[in-house]
Design brief:
alpha/beta, six-stranded parallel beta sheet, 11 helices, binds NADPH dihydro-nicotinamide-adenine-dinucleotide phosphate
């Protein structure tokens, strides 16, 4: 069984030499009486948050983290779609297609509860959709916009990393909800996708802007009601400067801060502005919202069927390509949900 491990903790931008492809013999049958399930991993997810699990464990990290840290040399747990090869758990049988926590590996031996394993209720859509538009990315967009942002028809919504997995779905949901939507992304090709294929009202390449604050003022002459933040730092500061009174900042992620080896000193966030404009800033974790997963999934499946939402995916092939797929997230190489096909 081949799998990807980190060689050591990573405290900045990840590079290929931080990773190794390891292999170990694998038992392809479950231990009788063990409730083990042996999975052949078909598709695995590649997500920015994993870098935060790869850092050197500090006491503040340890107390704030809800996902376990990654140990160098060991297989790395991730979301995936897999086929059951053998099962000693009566709820699963050989041939079932499942989603849940697997590994950056060809095979995984798991227990249903620990891996939140679910049989796919439909094979109507490509299996990859269960990692993106119908999976955790979609749920993050949905929960962030509707539960945290409490978006209303007519709201003016800004989303960063808008061509990424979560970002493009935030924009699509917001458009379906009757909002004015602007996205930022790192290339002209991504900007074109947002405007021409995904129905965003406007989009801009943030790498080509001299001053993000005035760029946002240009796109939001009447202010921003909801900022869906995927990147943090300068973009967050520029968005806050353009927020309307009672605006909401939905903090989904802060990718520009994940790879800073030193935490940034101070903050240029204008706190007085936040007070006087009564801005609400709230983070969230998608894992707290699994109770709305089925609701979200059936609504989104309906939108896909009727052509109202589109999946944007970016797929690499082979376990050995997982590190480059992962590293690429921090350089904007992906368009849409980054996935690695294993089998
Ligand atoms: P994406 O598919 O958006 O991939 C990451 C993208 O981020 C890149 O393609 C790149 O696009 C952009 N990016 C990379 N580095 C920077 C930078 N320094 N500044 C600005 N943009 C950058 O990933 P996801 O959709 O999976 O995740 C998006 C965000 O949501 C992440 O912060 C992630 O951690 C978070 N997240 C949070 C969840 C939660 O429960 N709170 C759940 C899932 C995701 P570009 O070319 O536009 O720069």
């Amino acid at each position: 069984n081949s799998f990807i491990a980190i060689k050591h903790h990573i405290n900045g931008f990840p590079v290929e030499s931080d990773f190794e492809l390891k292999s170990q013999p694998l038992r392809l049958s479950a231990h009788p009486g063990s409730t083990d399930i042996v999975l052949k991993n078909l598709f695995v997810s590649v997500d920015p948050y994993q870098i935060n699990r790869m850092k050197t464990l500090s006491p503040s990290h340890a107390s704030s983290s809800v996902t376990p840290f990654i140990t160098p040399g060991l297989a790395i747990s991730v979301h995936g779609v897999a086929e059951v090869v053998d099962s000693d758990d009566s709820k699963f049988e050989k041939g079932d297609i499942v989603e849940g926590i697997v590994h950056w590996a060809q095979y995984s031996v798991v227990k249903a509860g620990e891996s939140a394993l679910m049989k796919l209720d439909t094979l109507e859509f490509p299996l990859t959709y269960h990692l993106g538009i119908l999976g955790m990315s979609g749920l993050s967009a949905y929960v962030g916009l509707f539960d945290i942002g409490r978006v209303k028809e007519g709201d003016k919504v800004f989303v960063s990393a808008a061509s990424g997995s979560v970002g493009n779905l935030v924009g699509q949901f917001a458009k379906l909800h009757g909002c004015y939507v602007v996205g930022s992304a790192g290339s002209d090709q991504k900007v074109a996708l947002l405007k021409e294929k995904l129905g965003f009202d406007e989009a801009f390449n943030y790498n080509q802007q001299k001053d993000l604050k005035s760029t946002l003022t240009k796109y939001f002459p009447n202010g921003i009601d909801i900022y869906f933040d995927n990147v943090g730092y300068e973009m967050l500061e520029a968005a806050v400067a353009n927020m309307n009174p009672f605006g909401k900042v939905v903090v989904c992620g802060a990718i520009s801060e994940y790879t800073k080896s030193m935490s940034r000193k101070g903050s240029a966030l204008n706190m007085v502005d936040i007070v006087y404009k009564r801005i609400k800033i709230q983070g969230f974790l998608v894992s707290d919202y699994l109770n709305v997963f089925q609701d979200f999934k059936s609504k989104t499946a309906g939108y896909i069927r009727s052509g109202k939402m589109k999946a944007v995916e970016d797929i690499s092939v082979g376990v050995h390509n997982i590190p480059s797929a992962f590293i690429g997230l921090f350089h904007g190489n992906n368009i849409g949900k980054k996935i690695v096909k294993l089998a």
